[in-house]
């Protein structure tokens, strides 16, 4: 099965997708990490973040590797481990500019489809159910209020020793939601056949359980249909 989990920033996609994949023994792919890695490489190489032609050229020399590891997969670009760096605010606040560029989307989508062709997978992002894996058997669209998402990011930052005001976090989340939903190519949107799951008042375990239930129901229906 292919499981697509999409939704806005800090809705809980990667945390939940990782746990679902572990439970089912599926491959997990965090597509946001790919766009973050491209943004990191562009900043490092002085490539303008909205220059599609320059980004396309940069991507011809872009060797991206995901290495499975606990608690999070390692992200290696051109031999450099940038797992931690791609989560820095500098990247988070600029990634939407890069992810809106046509050549970046084309290349990343292709790569994600190749990864998915290897077998059962849980993939999370913004356009998995609509563009990358439109044939996915289970599509979940995770949402939560802006306030709740800012609270989650706030706690996450505090655990890393970073203090950011709630107002700043809410503003950043709103700005990224807007950019991701209004870009021309593959904007963030719920696929018509995706299940909407509002996680505002749900903890991680509750969300994982709900998703596993949807998957099991889908599996049951599949088996019934075959007979
Ligand atoms: O974890 P968080 O929600 O903060 O973001 P992410 O999933 O790491 O994604 C970072 C950025 O990459 C998003 O804000 C989008 O601009 C872009 N992205 C995308 O365009 N398409 C995807 N399938 C995944 C991420
Ligand atoms: O991938 P995405 O940006 O959608 O969100 P995430 O990075 O998985 O989750 C953002 C933060 O919210 C993490 O610190 C999670 O532990 C937390 N979270 C939560 O408190 N409750 C949930 N139901 C889901 C995530």
UniProtKB/TrEMBL annotation:
GO terms for cellular component: cytosol. This is Cytidylate kinase. It is found in: Cytoplasm. It comes from Ligilactobacillus acidipiscis. GO terms for molecular function: ATP binding; CMP kinase activity; dCMP kinase activity. It catalyses: CMP + ATP = CDP + ADP; dCMP + ATP = dCDP + ADP. Belongs to the cytidylate kinase family. Type 1 subfamily. It holds the Pfam family Cytidylate_kin. Residues 3-216 form the Cytidylate kinase domain. SUPFAM superfamilies: P-loop containing nucleoside triphosphate hydrolases (SSF52540). GO terms for biological process: nucleobase-containing small molecule interconversion; pyrimidine nucleotide metabolic process.
């Amino acid at each position: 099965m292919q499981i697509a989990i999409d939704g806005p920033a800090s809705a809980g996609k990667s945390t939940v997708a990782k746990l679902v994949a572990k439970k089912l023994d599926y491959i997990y792919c965090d597509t946001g990490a790919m766009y973050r890695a491209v943004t990191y490489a562009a900043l490092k190489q002085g490539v303008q973040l909205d220059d599609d032609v320059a980004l396309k050229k940069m991507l011809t020399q872009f060797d991206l590797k995901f290495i499975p590891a606990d608690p999070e997969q390692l992200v290696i670009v051109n031999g450099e481990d940038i797992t931690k760096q791609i989560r820095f605010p500098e990247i988070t606040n600029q990634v939407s500019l890069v992810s809106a560029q046509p050549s970046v989307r084309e290349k990343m989508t292709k790569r994600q489809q190749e990864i998915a062709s290897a077998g059962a997978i849980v993939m999370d992002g913004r356009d998995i159910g609509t563009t990358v894996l439109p044939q996915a058997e289970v599509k979940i669209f995770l949402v939560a209020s802006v306030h709740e998402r800012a609270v989650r990011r706030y706690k996450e930052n505090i655990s890393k020793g970073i203090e950011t005001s709630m107002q700043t976090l809410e503003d950043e989340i709103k700005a990224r939601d807007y950019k991701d939903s209004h870009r021309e190519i593959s904007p963030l949107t719920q696929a018509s056949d995706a299940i909407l799951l509002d996680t505002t008042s749900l903890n991680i375990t509750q969300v994982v359980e709900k998703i596993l239930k949807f998957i099991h129901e889908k599996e049951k229906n599949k088996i019934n249909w075959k007979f």
